[in-house]
Write a structure and sequence with these properties.
By secondary structure, this protein is an alpha/beta fold. The chain folds into two domains: 109 residues, Immunoglobulin-like; 325 residues, Zn peptidases (Aminopeptidase, 3-Layer(aba) Sandwich), CATH 3.40.630. The protein is built from ten helices and 19 strands. Strands 3-4-6-5-7-10-8-9 form an eight-stranded mixed β-sheet, with helices on both faces. A hairpin with a 2-residue loop joins strand 11 and strand 12. Helix 2 crosses helix 4. The protein is globular and about 70 Å long. The N terminus is likely disordered.
């Protein structure tokens, strides 16, 4: 069902509508309804049953260790492929990692389990990635033999990847989606680094990476906060890869809060809250948690757009802990600590963003803001994307103090003049498909 609240205003010779969008695509809503708590529980139960998934653990044991775990994930992807009409293919992408004197003490064969849902538009080269890490650790990261459940860190992220693949593989999208369970995260982000560097070398057109790490538990230690209605999305402000000249431009235009990753975070919040009831997506203005890092960082460092999705309240008695009871506290990342209703909502938040982006056209090109004269109006222009079935564009607007876009103005033109000052507002432009799905926003550059 589509519900649109319109605040209409006449801004040009053509009718242009400023909109607050509560517009749910029927197909995407159906996919949300298919997400199963029982499926998520079964994935995590199976992952925990491998005993340990430490990157240095056994690779040939059929029932225990990282090798058995990644073979099982590959089997699940191949099972999903049976309902995908040949569009889904999966394999384990391997690379040999040499000892580094830190967290790798011998040569190991690292494997990322990847499933690619090929886009239907051969001209559309966009790639969307959803990621979780398959490996885990005990208190001692080099302990590769003792039991390490890893239910939340990062069984939850891997389960979300699997469930999105199960459901989305039955549908088709113009853009390509990659579902990946990486290894080597706890050893130093090795799996994601390998994948990001490969993507850069091979010129993958990655539009967005959703990295899911620790997103299935609802309470914190010490503060005792319990809340399964909020989830965090972390995004970088100043891009890792910008040159000195680009940084000067960012500062001159006041765009410190408008990196591509921060635009993705705003998008994740808007689309997630549009489709997932009783979930607030909280944007955290940090690349990652305080002095910590995750698998989205190598993508950022290689010039791609990526965010990290993590539960609102972390419990550190369960992360990187041997299972034990000490001073009355139960330590360990056990499956009984997972809130499957919460994990279901966070999985849905990932799915709807992947689906909405994959159904949307590519972003508009050459988005410009005119500065030929001083004025209290703002003129924007842009070019249509080279592929995609277009309905038109949304021009986005927010005050400089607002963390999120506040207005959407629909137009079928490739230019617009708004009665709002460049001094007081930020602007961006999105492409919109025939079915109403929006691309990522593009902030205009100075002509």
């Amino acid at each position: 069902m589509k519900i649109i609240f319109l605040l209409c205003t006449l801004l040009s010779a053509r009718t242009i509508s400023a909109q607050t969008i509560i517009d749910r695509d029927r197909e995407i809503s159906q996919m949300v309804n298919e997400i199963s708590k029982d499926s998520l529980r079964s994935y995590i139960t199976t992952l925990v049953a491998f005993g340990t998934r430490n990157t240095l653990s056994a690779q040939t044991n059929p029932k225990r260790g990282i090798g058995a775990a990644r073979n099982w994930v590959l089997k699940k992807f191949n099972d999903f492929a049976k309902n995908a009409d040949g569009r889904l293919s999966a394999f384990i992408d391997t690379v040999t990692i040499q000892p580094n004197g830190k967290r790798i003490n011998r040569p190991i064969l690292l494997g990322n389990v990847m499933a690619t849902l090929k886009g239907t538009d051969l001209k559309d080269k966009r790639i969307l990635i959803i990621s979780g890490h398959l490996d885990n650790m005990r208190t001692n990261v080099m302990d590769s033999t003792g039991d390490a459940p890893g239910a939340d860190d990062d069984g939850s992220g891997t389960a979300a990847v699997l469930e999105c693949a199960r459901i989305m593989s039955k549908h088709s999208f113009p853009a390509t989606i990659i579902f990946v369970a990486v290894s080597g995260e706890e050893q130093g982000l090795f799996g994601s680094t390998y994948m990001a560097e490969k993507a850069k070398k091979e010129n993958w057109n990655i539009e967005a990476v959703l990295n899911n790490d620790i997103m299935g538990s609802n309470n914190s230690n010490e503060t005792d906060i319990i809340n399964n209605t909020k989830v965090r999305v972390f995004s970088e402000g100043i891009p890792h890869y910008d040159t000195e000249e680009q940084l000067k431009r960012i500062m001159a235009l006041g765009l410190e809060n408008d990196s591509k990753s921060r635009q993705l975070a705003r998008y994740v919040k808007e689309i997630g809250e549009r489709y997932v009831d009783h979930l607030e997506v909280v944007m955290i203005y940090r690349t990652d948690r305080f002095l910590r890092g995750g698998d989205h960082l190598p993508y950022l460092q290689n010039g791609f757009t990526a965010v990290r999705i993590t539960e609102m309240n972390e419990n550190f008695t369960r992360q990187h802990q041997d299972v034990r009871v000490e001073n009355g506290i139960h330590y360990g990342d056990l499956p009984e600590h997972i809130d499957y209703e919460y994990l279901q909502k966070n999985t849905a938040m990932n799915l709807v963003n992947l689906a909405n982006l994959a159904k949307a056209p590519p972003v508009p090109e050459d988005v410009n803001i005119e500065i030929v004269r001083l004025s209290n109006t703002t003129s924007l222009s842009w070019l249509a994307p080279k592929t995609g079935k277009m309905k038109g564009y949304y021009v986005l607007e927010r005050e400089t103090t607002s963390p999120v876009w506040e207005k959407k103005i629909f137009t079928t033109d490739n230019h617009i003049t708004l009665p709002y000052s460049k001094d007081n507002y930020f602007f961006a432009v999105q492409s919109v498909s025939d079915s109403g799905n929006e691309s990522l926003p593009v902030v205009p550059v100075v002509r």
